[in-house]
Amino acid sequence: MEQHLSQYRIFYEVAKAGNISRAAKELYISQPAISKAIGKLESSLGVSLFTRNSRGVHLTDEGELLFVHTKAAFEFLDRGERELKRIREFNIGHLKIGVSNTLCRYILLPYLHQFIQQYPHIKITIECQSSAHTLSMLEHQQIDLGVVAEPENKKSLAFLPVMDIQDTFVSTKNYMDNLKLREGEDTDIFQTGNIMLLDRENMTRRYIDDYMAAHNIVPNQVLEVTTMDLLIEFARIGMGIGCVIREFVADSLADGSLIEIPLPDPVRKRTIGFSYNTLLPSSSLNLFLKFLSDKTA
């Protein structure tokens, strides 16, 4: 069928006009060229599509049947072209983002707020999930963008850094005072305290587990929490010692509602940023990357 597409267009315009001369003006081609194209189409289909007289042309029964289908096809193509034009004019698109709950609140939302103001017609889908799942979806080209810690093995992924974060252990001063009153000033807090960590599905937890293993830290009593927000709130109400991201509790550390627990060595910082698959370009992704570039310039 591909080789006849132009012939179908000519047939469609002639059928609409009912006159070869008018169709020729509409298509900006000569009348003989139109007659030749119609003849080739009729020959290839093995039917007559028009009857001709001095007033013009009229569709045969077979021509009427073909016209119904070509009319639907070209109207469908016209709608597609109009939709593409609308998308181009209004920057309409779809941006699919994967992000953990924690990074969504503390990293992504401020950027999204400004991006939506600049590009209000782009549809945004958020997949809230673990960072490991986000990286997997990026590699399999199932999402456009991920907010993650910089991956060690990037493969086909590009990474745009946003900020460095550092994990630390915090509690209220009252909790530490009571723990030392009960267990002694020299107590090993990881043995006697209530250590609150993210659950094992979280990449931050795996990072902290590696840190504790490297420093022979073996918590005796662990409370697993599913989100960083809950972990921070539990620490604030004095439930125990929480492993949190320092940058996300900066205000609480500044006003003294939380205190930082000294560690043998600080936990190594991680870089958080936006990652995307270089094999999956999209207009919406390109707009977001340009927005990020303008923000960080």
Describe this structure in words.
- This protein has 297 residues and is α/β, with parallel strands linked by helices.
- Helices cover 50% and strands 22% of the residues.
- The chain has a five-stranded mixed beta sheet with strand order 4-3-5-12-6, sandwiched between helices.
- α1 crosses α3.
- The longest helix is centred in the N-terminal third of the chain and has 30 residues, at 61-90.
Compile the SSE list and pairings.
Elements: H1 5-17, H2 20-27, H3 31-45, E1 50-53, E2 56-59, H4 61-90, E3 94-99, H5 101-118, E4 123-128, H6 131-139, E5 145-149, E6 157-165, E7 167-171, H7 173-183, H8 189-192, E8 194-198, H9 203-214, E9 221-225, H10 228-236, E10 241-245, H11 250-255, E11 259-260, E12 270-277, H12 283-296
Parallel strand pairs: 3-4, 3-5, 8-9, 8-10
Antiparallel strand pairs: 1-2, 5-12, 6-12, 7-10, 7-11
Helix pairs in contact: 1-2, 1-3, 1-4
GO molecular function, one term: DNA-binding transcription factor activity
Organism: Candidatus Lachnoclostridium stercoravium
InterPro entries: LysR_HTH_N (IPR000847), LysR_subst-bd (IPR005119), WH-like_DNA-bd_sf (IPR036388), WH_DNA-bd_sf (IPR036390)
Briefly characterize the structure.
Keywords: DNA-binding, Transcription, Transcription regulation. The chain has 297 residues and is of the alpha/beta class.
Termini separation comes to 51 Å
Say how many strands there are: 12
Class per helix and strand makeup: alpha/beta
Helix/strand order, N-terminal first: HHHEEHEHEHEEEHHEHEHEHEEH
What level of helicity do the residues show? 40-55%
Q: What would the average pLDDT be, to the nearest integer?
A: 89
Strand count, sense and barrel status of the largest sheet are: 5 strands, mixed
Helix count from the secondary structure assignment: 12
User: Can you tell me the residue ranges where pLDDT is under 50 for at least 5 consecutive residues?
Assistant: none
Strand order of the largest sheet: 4-3-5-12-6
Outline, from the CA principal axes? rod-shaped
Compute the gyration radius: what is it?
33 Å
Q: How big a fraction of the residues is strand? A: 15-25%
